[in-house]
Amino acid sequence: MATDEATLLHAVIADPDDLSPRLALADLWSGERGELIRVQIERSEAMRAGRKSSKAGMRAHQLLQGNAKRWAGPIADRVLEARFLRGFVEWIVVDAAVFVRDWKTLFAMAPIRHLDLVHARPVIAELVDCPGLERIAGLSFNFAGTPRYDPVGDDVAIALAASPRLRNLRYLDLGHSELSEAALAAVASSPNLPRLELADLSGNAIPEMVEMTSGDYDGTIMDVWPGPGIVDFESRHGRREWLHPMQRRMRQVFREEI
After folding, report:
1. One-letter-per-residue 3-state SS of 23-38
2. Would you say residue 252 has pLDDT above 70?
């Protein structure tokens, strides 16, 4: 690996929000690998601005066919699924025990911003004390396993709410996790989520809490249209801004991986 290439890769991993080293690598690699970086960045920027991006999305899908595992590199063999955003693996589906054990290695391989964890309950004590959680922007538990959702339950939700490791979390998905009102209240009243922008708590004990959700540019921050159940919930537990509508520039964007 050339020195410039290694330096740029390190820069991408060290600062996932800086697009400059990604674009520099697109120039360096050129070909289909460089094109993937450019079209996925184009798509994310268009979606942020509320513009259509279907052509860029379709081209990215085409480029990844037959190339995804090779371009993902060694991390593809360590996780259940590696998803590309902005040209690199930013989203991983991984067993919670593997993340607790190997998070340093995983973060050294890719600019990971979002975790979708499977089988969190058996290792919840270790998970909520894992320093690796401090480096993520999004956390969910619902894209792997059979059935589609892997419910975490009250004990996991309450432990997450009490963890000081989630201070940088922007998006939390606890939808369809069989949570009681007490667990939902623990999340809503947690002082350990200062940067939380949006949470999906639909499909739990409070009926009609959420009417509809839609995905943002990278699939980790969702817009939420609350249902009538939110009024009753907040009358007992207080208002939380991240439970309320956020229609960014009046657009509706669906999660790219659905």
Report:
1. HHHHHHHCHHHHHHHH
2. no
